[in-house]
Amino acid sequence: MARETSASIAEWGAETFGAVGDLSILVARARLEFEELDAAVRAGDAPEIGKEAADVMILLHRLCGLIGKDLTEEVDAKMHINRARRWIANGDGVGRHTD
Questions:
Q1: CA torsion sign, 62 to 66 to 69 to 70?
Q2: Rounded-to-integer distance, Cα 68 and Cα 1, Å
């Protein structure tokens, strides 16, 4: 099976749903999918968590593909920045950078 890219997902989205005239539509839809992800997390439903997380990622890939970016490459670049930062842990599994 070929690996999906932001471009291939954006192409699939255009073929399946039509052109996106306003990118904020994808963000709004991602918010809805994120709410479904939150519900799955609260229910402790691991299979549904995976599916809903994928739905969120698909929308983010479409968004990046439509602006000529690849989400995986953007994540790699951002992680390079994050790894060079100093962080303060909140004690709950997340935190914030100090620089």
A1: positive
A2: 23
Helix axes 6-17, 46-66, angle to 10 degrees: 90
pLDDT bucket at 87, cuts 50 / 70 / 90: very high
The token pair at 33 is 């999918």
Which residues lie closer than 8 Å to 33 by C-beta, 6 or more apart? 52, 55, 56, 59
How far is residue 75's CA from residue 51's CA, in Å, rounded to a whole number?
A: 20
Q: What is the pTM of this model?
A: 0.91
Amino acid identity at 96: R
Contact 86, 99 (CB under 8 A): yes
Tell me the C-alpha distance between 49 and 26, whole Å: 20
Instruction: Say if CB 71 and CB 64 are below 8 A apart.
Output: yes
